[in-house]
Amino acid sequence: LLPSFAAAILGGLGNPLGAIAGGYVIAFSEITITYAFKKVFVYLLPENLEPTGLVQLISTDYKFVVSYSILILVLLFRPTGIFKGKSVA
Hints:
Elements: H1 2-11, H2 16-34, H3 38-44, H4 63-77
């Protein structure tokens, strides 16, 4: 429920297409930042450089931090959201 709230504000309040776009931005960023890239690196790197651990940027426990960090950054520069919506501040 909390990331969907961030996605609706990110896209612009009162704008359904903005909420959809905000949802895609939040979901894509959460997945790419918290994804374990071990399998990707196993296929891309030679055998002697294969990672032994999960190779994550941050733990999956911080998904909410990612979504709210993006929300704060967008609201600092564009208070109406990505698409024009009602002002939050």
